[in-house]
Structures are given as C-alpha cells and as structure tokens.
Design a protein that fits this description.
Family (chain B): Belongs to the eIF-2B alpha/beta/delta subunits family.
Largest sheet of chain B: 7 strands, mixed
Oligomer: heterodimer
Structural class of chain A: alpha/beta
Subcellular location (chain B): Cytoplasm, Cytosol
Strand order of the largest sheet of chain A: 3-2-1-4-7-10-11
Strand order of the largest sheet of chain B: 3-2-1-4-7-10-11
Organism (chain B): Coemansia aciculifera
Protein name (chain B): Translation initiation factor eIF2B subunit delta
Strand content of chain B: 5-15%
Number of domains of chain A: 2
Structural class of chain B: alpha/beta
Shape of chain A: globular
GO molecular function (chain B): translation initiation factor activity
Chain lengths: 388, 707
C-alpha cells in the first residue's frame, strides 16, 4: 500500500513524534534499554492508534517503515529492533488469529496462543487475560467477539484498531513490570549469606538483589565498571536498601572471585544464541567466574531478547568518547594514541549459566524457543528492516 | 658464648691500658695488610672497590653542606660518647642497665643529629638556590609523572644531601650502564639518580617504635585524626579487613614487621624516611624501582652509620637496619623483591669478618649493594630485554597491562632493533600506570607511523604481511599494521584481546608453585589471553622469585587506599580538574591523598584535611540545592561560597561514593595485587633464560647459596 505512508505523514502530530524520537536517539539522549523500549513501544502505539490505516498489511508496511527509520537513527540499538519486531508480531498474530477464527468457527483456536510465551507461563499478567478483564464487560476472548460480530469481508480497521491498541498497551504494561517480576525470582537463585558479585548499573539487577535482600542476608560486591563508574550508583542504591556492599576496582575481580558464590549480571540485550550484549567488562568477569566455576546469572527482561545472531561480535558494539579514558588534558597523547572505549561487551553463551526473565530461569540454549514464540512471524518481516 | 666474650672485651677496652693499645696497634697493622690483599684480589676480579675517586659530579654547595653535616654529626657523636661513658661510670658497669642507658643516649644523639640535619638542610637550600641548578624541578625523578606538577606548588625546604658514598653507588649505577640512562629504560638507575636530586622536606624526627598516630601528629602538627574511618569509631583498617564478614579472617594487609625491643628508639635515617614516604604515596611503586631505591637508601644508612663507641659494626648494624626496615614496612608492606634483597643484605652483614675495621666493612657493604643492583636488576634487565626482542616479530600486536619497567624496556629495545609492531596498553584504576608507559612509548616513536611505513617498505621481505599478524586490528584508528599505540581501560580487554598476537605482563613476584603475584588486573589479562589463545610472556628478574607458595589473592594481599576509588576520574562532570577549582581539588585527579602526601599514612587523614575547610560549606550547598528542588521555593544558598566549595559540592553530587564513610554498610576495597595461576603464563623471561613456570623451584634452588 503505497498510499498508506502518505496518509500517515499527512497527519500532523505523528511526524513530529517520530522526528523528536529519532533526534533523541541520534543524540544518545535515551539511555538505558528500558527507556528505549518504553519509548519505542509508546511511539508505535501512537502510530497504530492515530494513523488512518485500512487493513493489516498496510499497517504492517507502515510499522516497518517507521521501524526502519528508527533503526537508521540508532543502528546498534537492538532494543528498538526487538520492540518493533514484537509489535509487528502482535499485529500479525491478531490478524492471523482472526483469520483462523473466521475460517474454522468460533470454538476453535483461541487468541490465547497469540501472546506466546507470556500467556503460556504466567496467566495473570498476559495480554490475553488483560483483555478479558471484567471492567470491559466483554466475553473472555476478544478474537471470539470480533469473529462473532463480523465475517472476514467486513473485518475493518476500526475494530482491529482497538484490539491492537489494547494488546500493545498490555505489552507496555508488561515492560513496565518486567523488573519487579524478574525480581520475584530472586529467592530461587540466591541463598542466604551468599557473596554476590555484580558490575555496573542495572535496574533489573538492583531490584533483583533488593528483593533477595528483603528475605535473606546477602553481601554484594560491585565492580565499578570503568570508565563510566556506573557501579558507584549501583553500590549507593544497594547500600540504601541496607545491603552490605563492597565496591572494588574492575582490576580486582579475578582476585576476589575465589570468594564469590554467584555472579549476577545485567544485560543490554540478549542475542539469539544466548550471548549477551552487556556493559563492557562483563566478558572478563564472566570468564573469571567460569575459571572459578562460579555461576553466572543474567537478569534480562523478555524485551531484551533479540532474534539476531552475532555473526560478528562488534556488530552490536559502539565506541564512545575516549575522554573518560584519557582526558583531553593529555593533549600530546590524544594526538598520537588510539584510545578505545567500547560501550558494550559481547559475552558468549557458554559463559552464561542462567538467563532469568519474568517467567523464570532459562538456559541460553533454550532461547531460540522463546524467540520463536515472541517473534516467530515477525522475524521474516524484520529481516527486511535490517537489510535495507 | 663468644658474644659474651666479645662484650666483656668491649667493656674492658673502654679503659685502655698501654699494653692493650700496643696490642691493638699490632692487630690493626695485620688487618690493614689483609685488607690490601683482599682489595688486590677484588680488583683482579674486576670489582671496583675504590669509590673515592669518582667524586667529581658533586657540586661545591653540596660538598660544603656535606662537610658541615659531617662536622655536626661528629660533634654529636662526641657528646654521645661523653654521655655514655659518664653514664657507665655512674652505673658501676652493670651490663644490662649500661646497655639500656646507652640506647637512651643514642636516641638522644639521634634527635640532635636530625636537628642538625634540618639546619644543614636550610643552609643547603640557600646555597642551592643561589647557583646550583642541580635541585631544579627539571631533574625530577619521574618527570612525566603527572603528579609531579604538584611539586611546583610545594614550597618545601630541601633535603640535605647525604653521604658521598651512597652518592657514588648511585652514580656508578648510571655510569656503568649507559644503556640504562639512554632511553630511560633503566628506570631503576634513572630513578636512583633522580632520587638523589629530589627535594624532600626533612619532616619530623622519626624513631622506630613511634605509633602511626604519633607520627601523624608530629608531621602535621595537629592531633591525629586517623581514626575517623568508621561512624562507630573503629579504625579504618579493622573496617576494611572486616569488609566481607565471611572471609574477614583471611583478607587483610600483609603483616607488618613486629617491633622488637632492641629497635626501640633508633633514629630513622632521613633517606629511609624519604624512600618510605615515597613508597607510601605510591610515587615509587614499581617492583624494581622500589628495590633500587631501598638499596640505595641502605647504602646511605650504612655509610652514615657509626656504631656506638667500643662496639663492633657488624653486630650493631643489623638491629640498626632492622629499625629502618621496620619503618619502611610500616609505610608500605614489603614486596618480595625487597624482602629478598634485604635478606641478602642481612646475610652479607653477618658474613663480615670480625676483624675488619668499620670503614672497610662499610665500603665493602656499599660496594656489594651496588653490585647486587647491577647484577640482579640492571644487567638482568638487559639480558631479559635481549631475550624478549627475539619474541617480537614485525606485525605483532603486543598487549600489555599497566606499566612494568621491564616490559617497557623490552618493547623499546625491540623498537630500537628495528622491529615494527603495534602496542595495546591496557590500564586500570586507581593508579593508571599505563599512561606513563604510553608516554614513554610515544616518546620512543611508537606512534610515528610514517617512519614505520618507510622502514617497512624499504625492506622488500616485509611488503607481504607477516604470517601471524592479526588482520582484525589492521589499520584501525590511527594505527597501522606496523606501529601505533592503543590505550584502553581494562573493561575493554575482551574487545581488544582479539587483536593481540602476544601479551607481555610485568610481575612483582613468582611463587614456588609458579603462580605470579602482580598488580591487580594482571590475572584478568592473562585469563583473557588464555581464553583467546594468545601467548602470555612474562619478563621477570630472578631476584623476584619467592620460595613461598600462595594459591589465591585473598589469603594475602595489600589493601590500597580506599579513597582512591571514591571519585569517578575522567567522567566529565565528576572531573575536579575540569571545574574551576583550587589546586587542592585538582590534585585529586591523580592522587586521592595528595595534600598530606608526606604524613605517615596520607591515606587516612587526607579526607579530613581536604574536607575540613570546605565540607561545611559544601554540605550546606547540597542541602540548599536539595531544598530548592524539593520545595520549589527559595532556600537561600550560602552567600559567600568559595569556588572550591562549589566544586566539591558538584563533585559530591556526581560521585555518589564520596560520602561512603558515613554509610555503615558501604565499603570500598582497593585490592592492589592478584595471583595469576601458573597455567596462564606461557613463558617467563629471566636472566637465566626462558623458563616455564614449573622451573621456578629449580632456579630458586640454584640461587639458594647466593642468598
């Protein structure tokens, strides 16, 4: 639908929204995977609700166009890609479930399968359940209702729109609650009096540890994570929750590792093979843990799981300003020396023991299955976004 | 038994009789004869014992000061002697009380000596400022060290030059090893030469057995504030070793030598003070530099030492040295190399024959010290550099960590030999030593890619890339295939390790089980190299080998200054230097304990001194800011607020750990060393050849008799 694009950009607010988001991305003003995910999801919801699309294929084209625009603004931000994929997936699932319903009759496949892993394992929080809330006064399954009220020919944007918006809202809700739900798993992984090592700043890890500390006594060692020294904020945050915190320089991780019971890392993104894109320094920490046979637990929300495979480790990395590593005050050196300041590290899956998301722990090797449930049908579409 | 006999002899000889003196003269003649023979023999073996000819570089001013000092000390010696004999008379020869009194007298004499030292210092400084450029800041020890610029602001009296003998040792070091001074690779020698030119405040009079609190009080002139660490008033060290309760028993500082009663009250030589404090402030931190500076200081101590009247040098020198060592250890735990060197020195002192006269013995010891440095450190370094050069090929990408003098020397030697390779310097907090290395490498032309390209294109065989070069790092950034320097924090290790073709690491020590003790982070680099299948090559002089066995780094480690982790260096908003603030804050980028650098433990009292003036102001600023944010109304900020206070306030906001001491469950642990398991080290380059880690016990066995 070539006309669709025109339609979207003719409405006044949407281009503004998109442009402001793009410029924020380009300037690096959106920090943290959660923020990026929330913002992207909200933007896509706006697009779904405000743009005058007519049918699902046109909406898909539209979302892909926007997704491409966002990815071009920040090509290395896997989270944008994940969220776009996920929304495309939601759109697709709805569409196909409605189709199925129409073909096979009201009592056959339910839309419950649409929301994938989340609905399968954690009923109360899933989009499907959200849809069936009593306040709406609707029958349990919206797909059913839709199919009852109209046949395929009359399936129009108006009805699908509210359905989709609701679904995306649920997804956003899920995003919001991710950390808390991951943290609920803490007691399964942390025993009392354990010494836990973590590095850098991660809200997910912070909540996870605080949850654990609310029930048992733990000791946390925080590697400060040069050159941002995010670990300082993490340490401060944990200490304020009355956890015993010790800050160590990054260099001392190996030295202290023999006394550590568990390493808990956050991740910026999780790749399809189970490898991590995490704060720089994570790889050596994970390797040191492996050398001492210490378990590595990675806390990452489902939205961080990306259907991309790491063919080249550097593909997902960015080099940031060297100023923090070698101050510009060192003029003579700046002129002559190369200063590397990578923002992320690639941690291979064999160094990761467990990935914890809001549904519980998974092996890195199990990731493909989760991805299929969350992105299966959008993946092919998504590859197009990446390629062009 | 023999001791008792000689003691009684000493007591006897305090009232000399004519017969005895004749006998003594005969003995002296024999001794003189023996010494001459020995000298001849030594000369045959090429060991230069006669140091007294190479005096020329001492300036007039220094010599005058020296003479003054000697005169002063002679006078005091005489006084002490007089006092001692009168005491003895009064006590009627009771041996025990006699020695005790003698010790007291010595303490007294020491005090006077130090006072005269200060006097000499002031005269020297006057003389030096007049016409001598020797003391100019341009000749500083480690001129590229950024902390050095602070000295420009320091208005301190100059340190009196100590004995000529020690000066010669140092000079011989640099004279006999022109290679060492050439390209600054012989850090050790250069350092020793530099320390000679260093200015240093005389500081308070220090005696062994002083507690730290006493010392701090004496040096700052205020009552000690050391114990400010914990809110509950616990001393900081207790807090630290208690940092993680489950292993609080194991982790701690290395043991500080115990002060035996015989050391009490012995005066600490000013050079020892200087070296000790330099080590405490981490100004001297390399393993080699530490040993050389300590040995050079011991040469001074020995040269300046006069045994108490009527006693033998070889018996009194050892406890005298022990007191000095105790002070050093107190400043900073001893390194393995220092331990080995000191053990060696003590055994040499014991080996001095009883009938050698004091001056001979002294000059012999000083000579031996200089030989030790020459053989075991300087020459060994040369051999290692030669071995290392063989291991570097054109097109290599060498990764190294921190700043090891041996590695630095090796790399520069390889460059001078015409090898063309890239260097990646990985670095870490808190010392960022790697920057020094980068400066040296850049100065040696490593980043001069045009030159590298020119040489490589000249020789036809280098047009094709070497077989083992890493294609991944080719031409990244400013680096070429044959040159360039990359600098990165340790967190970027796995990002860069894929580019490396060889890893060179410096070691502080090797244990008998093959484990390597080195600066914290070395083990991570070695591990990373191991997992990327990059060979790890460690140049290490054999004097650093230790017979101990250590399995992990928690059992024994050195805890650094926790405050060094307090601030975020290099983060723009947290950069004290970037802000418009006074030097005292600017200093903190490079040293967390800059202002009180000369106190015994600058680490502990720094915070109070820094904060004392400004903390209240800063706190009120923060409170004010918070209030503003909270209420949205005008909570008046303090009217007059210095720039320093503003800077500190901003610093506190961007560095959340700056108030860590007031949070009882938040601690900073600055481990400074770690243990690299033997399997990570591919080969050790020593002066006895290239050996695997399993051969360390063999080498130790070979050297046993030399210890």
């Amino acid at each position: 639908m070539s006309s669709t694009k025109m339609d979207v950009f003719s409405t006044r607010e949407l281009p503004l929204l998109i442009e402001s988001f793009v410029s924020q991305l380009k300037r690096g003003q959106l920090v943290g995977s959660k923020t990026v995910a929330m913002n992207t999801a909200n933007l896509l919801r706006e697009i779904v609700s405000r743009s005058p699309w007519e049918d699902i294929p046109s909406l898909t084209t539209l979302l892909k166009a926007v997704g491409k625009r966002l990815l071009r603004a920040q090509p290395r931000e896997l989270i944008i890609f994940n969220v776009v994929c996920r929304v495309l997936h939601i759109v697709n699932e709805d569409y196909s479930s409605v189709e199925v319903v129409n073909e096979e009759g009201p009592m056959s496949k339910k839309k419950g399968s649409a929301s994938g892993a989340s609905s399968a394992s954690k009923g109360s929080e899933t989009p499907a359940m959200g849809l069936g809330q009593p306040g709406t006064g609707q029958p349990r399954n919206l797909g059913e209702q839709v199919s009852q009220s109209m046949d395929r020919a009359t399936l129009n944007a108006f009805h699908l729109k509210s359905l989709l918006i609701q679904e995306i809202m649920d997804y956003i809700l899920e995003l919001e609650k991710t950390e808390v739900e991951i943290a609920d798993n803490a007691r399964e992984h942390i025993h009392s009096n354990e010494i836990i090592l973590t590095c850098g700043r991660s809200l997910t890890v912070e909540k996870f540890l605080k949850n654990a500390a609310s029930k048992v006594k733990i000791h946390v060692i925080v590697a400060e994570c040069a050159p941002t020294y995010d670990g300082h904020e993490q340490a401060q945050a944990l200490a304020s929750a009355n956890i015993d915190v010790v800050v160590i320089p990054d260099a001392a991780v190996f030295a202290i590792m023999s006394r550590v019971n568990k390493v808990i890392l956050g991740a910026h993104a999780v790749l399809a093979n189970g490898g991590l894109v995490a704060a720089s320094g994570s790889h050596t920490i994970a390797a040191a843990a492996r050398h001492h046979s210490t378990q590595v637990v990675v806390c990452a929300g489902l939205y961080k799981y990306s259907p991309m495979f790491p063919f080249d480790d550097d593909r997902f990395n960015t080099l940031v300003s060297p100023d923090a590593v070698l101050p510009y005050g060192d003029g003579e050196l700046i002129d002559t020396v190369d200063v590397s300041n990578p923002r992320y590290d690639y941690v291979p899956p064999e160094l990761v023991d467990i990935l914890v998301d809001h549904t519980g722990g998974h092996l890195p090797s199990y990731l493909y299955r989760l991805l299929q449930e969350n992105y299966a049908q959008a993946k092919d579409l998504a590859w197009n976004i990446q390629d062009e | 038994m023999s001791e008792a006999k000689s003691e009684s002899k000493a007591v006897e000889s305090s009232q000399p009789t004519p017969a005895l003196s004749a006998e003594a003269a005969e003995k002296a003649r024999l001794k003189e004869e023996r010494r001459r023979l020995k000298d001849i023999e030594l000369k045959k073996r090429g060991i230069d014992t006669d140091k007294k000819d190479s005096k020329s570089p001492i300036s007039k001013a220094e010599r005058r000061a020296l003479q003054e000092q000697q005169r002063a000390s002679k006078q005091h010696g005489a006084q002490a002697k007089a006092g001692g004999s009168s005491q003895q008379h009064r006590d009627g020869g009771s041996a025990a009380s006699g020695t005790r009194d003698a010790r007291e007298v010595r303490l007294d004499a020491g005090a006077q000596h130090s006072a005269s030292g200060t006097a000499a210092a002031s005269t020297t400084s006057a003389a030096a400022q007049g016409k001598n450029t020797r003391f100019s800041m341009a000749n500083r020890v480690i001129p590229e060290d950024k902390r050095m610029y602070l000295y420009l602001h320091l208005d301190t009296p100059q340190h009196p030059p100590s004995s000529a003998t020690a000066l010669e040792v140092v000079q011989s070091l640099s004279i006999n090893n022109p290679a060492a001074t050439d390209h600054g690779a012989g850090d050790a020698a250069a350092f020793a030469a530099g320390i000679r030119n260093a200015e240093f405040p005389p500081g308070p009079h220090v005696i062994a057995g002083m507690t730290r609190d006493d010392y701090v009080a004496a040096s700052t002139g205020e009552p000690c504030k050391v114990g400010i660490a914990g809110p509950s008033g616990e001393p900081a060290e207790a807090l630290l070793s208690d940092a993680i309760p489950p292993f609080s028993n194991g982790l701690g500082q290395r043991k500080v030598a115990k002060l035996s009663s015989s050391m009490m009250g012995i005066a600490i030589h000013p050079r020892i003070k200087e070296v000790g404090l330099r080590m405490a402030t981490m100004e001297v931190s390399g393993a080699n530099a530490r040993v050389v500076s300590v040995l050079a200081a011991f040469a001074d101590v020995i040269a300046d030492y006069t045994p108490p009247p009527q006693t033998a040098l070889y018996r009194n020198l050892a406890p005298h040295l022990s007191a000095q060592i105790n002070f050093l250890v107190y400043q900073r735990p001893m390194s393995t190399g220092m331990g080995n060197a000191i053990r060696w020195l003590k055994s040499q002192i014991q080996n001095i024959s009883a009938d050698m006269n004091d001056d001979e013995a002294k000059s012999k010891l000083v000579t031996m010290i200089s030989d030790y440095v020459k053989e075991r450190i300087t020459a060994a370094g040369d051999v290692i550099a030669e071995l290392g050069v063989e291991k570097i090929q054109d097109g290599d990408v060498i990764l190294t960590y921190g700043n090891s003098s041996t590695v630095q020397r090796l790399l520069i030697a390889a460059r001078d030999m015409g090898r063309r390779f890239r260097v990646i310097v990985v670095d870490s907090r808190p010392h960022n030593d790697g920057r020094k290395l980068v400066h040296k490498l850049v100065a040696a032309g490593f980043s001069d890619l045009e030159a590298a390209a020119a040489t490589t294109s000249d020789s036809s065989d280098m047009t094709s890339a070497p077989a083992n070069h890493s294609t991944r790092g080719k031409g990244r950034g400013r680096n070429g295939l044959y040159g360039g320097v990359t600098y990165a924090p340790i967190t970027a290790l796995s990002f860069l390790m894929r580019e490396a073709s060889k890893v060179f690491l410096g070691a502080e020590s090797f244990f008998a089980n093959g484990a390597m003790l080195s600066r914290a982070g070395t083990a991570m680099v070695a591990l990373s190299a191991h997992s990327f299948h990059v060979p790890v090559i460690v140049p290490c002089e054999t004097y650093k080998f230790s017979e101990k066995i250590q399995l992990d780094a928690v059992v024994s480690n050195e805890l650094g200054v926790p405050d060094a982790l307090m601030y975020k260096t290099g983060v723009p908003d947290a950069e004290p230097v970037g802000l418009q603030c006074s030097p005292s804050l600017a200093e903190m980028e490079y040293s967390a304990y800059a202002r009180d650098r000369y106190s015994a433990r600058p680490r502990w009292n720094n915070r109070s001194s820094l904060a004392s003036d400004t903390a209240n102001e800063a706190a009120s600023v923060i409170v004010g800011a918070a209030g503003k944010r909270g209420k949205g109304s005008k909570v008046a900020a303090p009217v007059a607020m210095s720039d320093e206070a503003k800077a500190l306030a901003r610093l506190n906001i961007s560095c959340p750990l700056s108030e860590w001491r007031s949070t009882h469950n938040l601690r900073l642990m600055n481990l400074t060393q770690d243990i690299t398991p033997p399997e990570f080290v591919s080969v050790i380059l020593t002066e006895v050849g290239m050996i695997p880690t399993t051969s360390i016990p063999v080498v130790l066995r070979e050297y046993q008799d030399q210890l």
